[in-house]
Amino acid sequence: MLITNFIGGEKIKNKAILLTISLVFMLALCGTVSATDHIEGGDPGGMGDVELPDAPMDESSSETSEVLVDPIITYQLNFAEYPDDSGLNPTITVKDDQGNLINFAHNPIAKQISFDYPGVTEGTTFNISVKVPGYEVLEKNVQVSRNPYDPSDPNFYANVVFDMVATPNYRLGREVTKKANQLLNLNTANPDNILCITSAGLTYLNNTTTEDCLEGILNGTNGKITYGQGNLLTLRKTRVDPTNFAFIIKNGNNLTVAYYDQNGNLVYHGIISANMTNTQWNTFVSKFGQDDAFPYISLANAWAAGLPSDTLRQAAYHGHLCLGTISGQAMIQTLLKYYPPGDLVGGVQEETSYRVLGVPGNSDDDTYMYTLDLTSGKRAYIGYATAEDNTLTGFIKWCAATKSGTLIIMRFNEDAVLALYGKTRSEVYSSISNELAFNTWLINQLKNNPESLVEIVGAYTGLTEADYNYLAGGLDSKKPVADAHGLDMEYIQGKIDEGSLIPAVPANNPTPTIGNLTEEQIKQIGIDAAKKAIELFAAEGINLEKDNYNFTVFTSAGYVRLNGQTTDMTWDGIYQILGSRLSRATLLPVHNAIYNPLWFQFTYEDQINKTVKSKTLYYNPETGEFTVKNSAACNIADVVLYDPPYDALMAWLWHNHVCGGSSPGYLITNYIYDNYPTSEDESYIFVGTSISCRDDIYQYLMGISPGLGTYYSQRMTSASSGSSIGILIKWNEKLGVGEAIIIDWTGPRFASGSNSYEEYIRLYKGDYSSPNLISAPVITTFERLITREDLQKILSGGDDSGNALVYVRGLPIRSLSDLIPTNDGSQDGNQDGNQNHNQGDNVTGGSTDSNQGGNSLIPGSDSGSDTGLPSASIGDRGPGVNAASQVQVTTQATEPTVGDSGSAREVSKKAPESEEEGINTLWIAVGAVLIGSLVALGFFKGTIMGMLK
Known about the structure:
By secondary structure, the chain is an alpha+beta fold. It is built from 27 helices and 40 strands. Strand 21 and strand 22 form a beta hairpin. The chain starts with 15 loop residues before the first helix and ends with a helix. The N terminus and C terminus are likely disordered.
């Protein structure tokens, strides 16, 4: 007998009369439910939410199968806290008393489930659990009984009531939304005039990620705020950052904000417009804090100025909007116009048609990674802090067929842009209102004349494979053949001088015409795709229900554009039909380059057999029709079966696929947070050496990036890096000192035939009990204290060795008192309070020597360069938090002592019953020295604008 799920009022197998009878004696069956409710804060074991079609039962396999009976269970959900959620459709799981999952039919209209189960007798118990977005998972044991009114009725019946309990994070999202509505009258405003900016999502509250806060905001505004409308912006924060909420209402040229903290308290209510006075700005900064004031105000005013939603999300990923962000977008548009993409290099998923040679430290670097999907973990971005101007970027366009490439070098010249704007630098940055006015002008230039914001310094053909290997480490993304050198302008100039690189002829492409689809028409694409998916799965006997956690939509929408138009509104169309969205982890935007095709992958997860069935619809903008393929466009569906942590899933989406190379990233991130938490004055910097897919994971989860000057991709061969995956740096800008930690990684070993994704996700959750785990992962570290000079050498690739790992290992053992002189309260390190940080960017490059001679590739200008080092803590406050697992630290025989920070430590994850806390003995021992130094030195306090630039 084939049992199916229902999306509407389809006929259930049982005769209509049985439904009537069951309703009549419902009250008679009250009391058949176990008195104890079991509440879980998450998905129980990753196996708890199933609505799957029955396969025909093999009656010969059961001694009692000659008489099959149908338990029919009626359920009721009560939403006392938020009655407007009563329309949510639960994802239901049914288990027998042995814990085996049972297939069933579901009629959501009648709120009934039914199934075949052999050997049912009076009082047979089944476990029923329900999962609803924003609510705790509830489960009850239900005993079924005969129909007392019809002895000939072979079926059994039960009734069960669930009093739904909102999760704390969902409740927080609903409550701050309610307060903001009362203060700003959101319910009466046009959605075009409403914006919410929040850090919720990857931040941790109540020992878990905070996507339920986002669900609370979305449900609490009744469609006024949606993902598709682009008026919900989530800042890329980390698990240790506070969870904050800013609701903004636009009234003409005025923006008013209501800002709430993670306790639901109103922190600030007032103006956030570009016309605010310096006094208002100072008050705003005092309430928001120096780290958050500029991000919130720059994003809010960019939204008000009409910046496209996908560019707004890119700015939110970077952390704020500034000249570097807009210039990066202008470079991308210029690149795609004159040097457009061809086929993927080799047609391999991990390789793209472009590579980027960046100089980290300016916001434009994050733009390329985000908008073109040129991430470091895919070896598409190489970044050294060379002596070059960090406004320079090299793009390599490689042709696999001819094994030759084109090198395009661009820059944004701040002086030239300011001249075009008609104001001096001091005028632009003299007040927040002037800077926001400049940002608005930049947005208009980006829309109407992006090429005016950037310069093509040079474009050259004739790049050979040997050149590629020298600059980027090799064509093969997985196997470097040389140590990469990044944007080595001396090498490039030499190739130009010898004539092997010759000027490239740009494509003669006209300015692209922007499409004219309305938002409703773009939304309809999502609606049509969802309806087509329902039709396709129904043809195979699978009927899709709304709000189903076992059905996931993956899509390139939100990243790709249709004829220059954003595709976000397709998300709202899919949500309207299927109830799928990001806050539920059931609509997952997969990182794609802006020029890639629009596709929707619909994946049904069979939790019993641990299989997935996917169908992908590719949209043709010329015909408005879909091409259907019975396959997956994205393999992240392979891990959703095992209920990965939300933040791990988000990091995989950033990487755009799952693979063995990316799997260790989450464990490495956990290790760093557990063992090297940052204090208030410290920030993370990471120098990748053995570059792998894992780099995308910890870069995303740690809030580090090239655009912030906190991530460097120094791709090396295995001969140069060994087992060292990178150098973690805890940098204290106020003191001008830090700690460099070389991290060596040895991966876990699993039994042959086991599923590595399932096994890794067990480890993510701290479960080391799997019989398939042969050996646990091991991390070994090597530590040295470093000066500012040391830091610059590490970021630029080491000393004469050209290897940052060799440089760190050769540093002497020093204590903080050795590095921080306290006799006169002064120190070397360029702590000038008037130092400008280039529109919010943390810049790591030194002064640029711009005079390279008459035949120089680079014109004589050092616009945009700076001499500062990363000075802002990138979202890391307080001790590290890891709810999923703990780490046991096994210290080697020689314990590090005060002044001996170089002793390696081996860290491996063990079974939970033997967990211990790791202690960094160095920092405890030198605490008194540090405090004394701080008293002598005083805390460096720059201007507010200096902190933000």
